[in-house]
Amino acid sequence: MGGCSVWDISLVSYRMLRRRAFYRSRGLVSRIIRLENGTSIRCWVHLRDVSHRKRGGKKGNHSTVEERTTAADGAAHGKPLSERKALLFLHGFGEDGTTGWRRQVATFTKEYRVYIPDLIFFGSSSTTNQQRTEIFQADCMHDMLVKLGIKETHVVGTDYGGLVAFWLAHKYPEMVQKLVLCSTGVCMTPSTYEPLLKSQRMERIDEILLPTTTDCLKRLRSLLYSKPDNAPDFFLQQLLEVFYNVSMRPRRAQLLEKQVIGSQDCRPLPPLRQEVLIIWGREDKLLKLDLMYKLKQHLGPNNPQVAILDGCGHVPQVEKATHFNAIVTEFLAEGSSDAEMSPKFSVA
Q: Which residues does the annotated region (Disordered) include (predicted)?
């Protein structure tokens, strides 16, 4: 028989199809934004208001993890799309926009106009420009937002996306309102990864962050999660083929090589004007808690709010999605600068 059977689609590809459908169900539309510097950014753009839809469905209907997480966060109806503030999410190094924020989409599309791009050389974003720094990424995020007509936005960045968010907030303070930095090495130094590399018997961080085999991917997942699942090898192999394919490896290695923060030539980091929330997993094995305290000190004793989540590692937005969403929602709410974070979430 002709045609394509369901068995021709890998489990990872099927999950990606489901997630793209889920994003669309929340009013997001995938768009390619072409910039004058030779860069094309794929971004999920919030174009449709679906906040009036009822959550859930008939008894017995199946729901995704993302939908169950949202149900736990509450089912408040959102404002009309035109009246909402913009909210930009920037993903980490091993993900893209479609995978990095899957458990935040439904919660935040109820109250904000959400924008979720793929950073350059992740997902469907690319450039012919020779620049590879995270500062260039920040410039491209700014130019993308300008193209989309966004003058002001809150920003949430995790891991590598947090570095991009930091520079975006510094270089374009008139655009960035509040800033959330999660598990990000803004205050890292050239020696930050040395203990990790020594413990893993590796020489370069790209050997860890750019896995080439299922065993390498298992090692990376053990560093990212406090309790990594026992995914079968065939599934890990599919992950490698989709997210760590050979064609993208050299370009992503260049991103690590040209990263300004943590390099030998990095000048003292600038302060920020914005209100900042720092979120960290207490069991983060990739970027230890001492980096969080250095970041808090750098931003000033009276500026950043801090939330340390127990029972999770480098990806609190995944492992503790409900708590993460509640903390960020509280921080972004009107008047949060005059109120303290909920005690159950914050650590002084």
A: 53-78
Q: Mean pLDDT score of the chain, rounded to an integer? A: 87
Query: Quick one: which H or E segment has residue 317?
Result: helix 316-319
For the record, the structure tokens of 237 come out as: 């192999």
What are the pLDDT digits (tens) for 243-277? 998 888 999 999 999 999 999 889 889 989 999 99
d(CA 182, CA 156): 8
Write the single-letter amino acid at 103.
Answer: R
Q: CA torsion 47→184→330→172, rounded to 10°?
A: -60
Half-sphere exposure of 52 (CA within 13 A, CB side): 4
Backbone dihedral region for residue 74 (phi beyond 0: left; psi -120 to 50: alpha; all else: beta): left
User: Which residues, other chains included, contact 164 with Cβ-Cβ below 8 Å and sequence gap of 6+?
Assistant: 90, 119, 134, 137, 138, 141, 157
Residue 46 · residue 109 · CB < 8 Å:
yes
Q: Are 333 and 242 in contact (CB under 8 A)?
A: no
Q: Is the pTM of this model over 0.90?
A: no
Lookup: tokens for 297: 């000190």
Cα separation, 96 vs 121, in Å, equals 9
Residues 6+ apart with CB under 8 A from 125: 39, 40, 41, 42, 117, 118, 119
* 263 burial via Cβ count (<10 Å: 0-12, 13-18, 19+): middle
Is residue 334 very low, low, confident or very high in pLDDT (cuts 50, 70, 90)? low
